[in-house]
Amino acid sequence: MRIYKVGGAVRDRLLGKPVTDIDWVVVGATTEEMLAKGFRPVGADFPVFLHPKSGEEYALARTERKSGRGYGGFTFHASPEVTLEEDLIRRDLTINAMAEDDQQNLTDPYQGQRDLEARLLRHVSPAFAEDPLRVLRVARFAARYATLGFSVAPETLALMRQLSESGELEALTPERSWKEISRALMEDQPQVFIEVLRACGALKVLMPEVDALFGVPQPPAHHPEIDTGAHTLSVLQQSALHKQPLTVRWACLLHDLGKGLTPNEEWPRHVAHEFKGLKLIKAVNERFKAPRDCQELALLVGEYHTHGHRALELKPSTLLELLQSFDVYRRPQRFEEFITACEMDARGRKGLENRSYPQADYLRGAATAARSVAVQPLLEKGFKGPALGEAIKRERLKALKVYKDAASA
Q: Containing domain of residue 286, as a range?
C-alpha cells in the first residue's frame, strides 16, 4: 500500500498558494485492507474512505471508462493493480495530475509542472472530451488563475469546442452546472469564466441569453464601452474587485439580458429592456436551479436597476414603491445588495470605474426615512386592518417627501 497526495494540494503548493483541501489516493490496496486499518467507507460509486483520525478522504486508485452521457456516464474500476499513472491520467488537467509522497517526491507523468511554469491549462488525455463538466471546470480554473497569467492551451480549447458542439453539455444536471458556475463567479476574475465559455462555444449552449449580449451596442454617452456583452463582463469584474457576495455577482451577470431582445433597428437604445429581460432572467434562474436568494435579487436588479441610477430624480411616490418592492422593512439586506449591484453596474463602464455613486447613500437614507415611521401611534389612533396599512403608507410617503426636500436643499 502506497499513499500519495494528489491534485489541487500538489498544484497549489508548487504555485506557492495556500493549500486548503487535500486529496489522497491509495495505490496497491484492497477495500478489506483499508477497513482493517480503521478507514470508514463513504464512496457509493467507487471506494472512498475516511481516515480514522483526520477524517480526510482517501480514494483507491481507479480507472474509468465512458459508459453513458453526461458527467455521471462513467464506469469505474478500482483494484490493487491500478497504477498511480493510470489513476492520474483520468484527471482533467496536467496541473491537476501530479502526485507526491510523504517526502514530497513528485510524480509528474504528464508534465504538469512544465505547464505550471508555462502558465497553461492543458488536458491530460483525449479522454478529457468524454466529460462535459470539464468545460465548466477549465473555465473556472481560468478565472481562478488569470491573475497569475494562466490561459487555456489551444488544443484544450479545441476539445472544449468539440464538447460544446456535441450536445453533451445538455446532459449536465442543473445541480452540477450551478456548483461550477457559482464557484467560478466567486473567483477573483469571474469575467474570465464567461470569456472562456464564449471562446469555446459553451456560453451559447448554457446561457444563450448572456451570449446574445455580445455585439449589441448601447448609447456611447452612457456606455463608452458600447458593447453590452463587454459591459456585462466589466460589471462582473467590478463585483469581484469589490468582494461582493454570490447574490450580487449573479445579479450583475443577468441584469441587462433584456437588451439582447432589442430589434436591431432600435439600437443603440433599449426601451423597456428592464421588463423585457425578466422572462430571460427567470429562465436562466430555473435552468440552473439557482438558490432562492440569487433568483430573487437577479429579478429585482433586472427590473429596477435604472431606478437605482435615477434615484435622485425619483418622485417620493416612486421611491416608496421601490422600497415596498424590496420589503426594506423586513429584508433590509436585500435592498443593500440591490444598491451595491446598481453601483457595480455604474462602475462597469469604460473609464468610469472609479466614479462616485451618490445614489447609493441617497437610497440608504430613503430606506432609513421610510423605516423610521412608527406604527404604534397609528394603532393608538384606532387604525387597523387595511386602513392601518394605508395610514402607514401615507406616513412613509410624508417622511420621504421631507427626506427628498432636505437632500435637495
A: 245-370
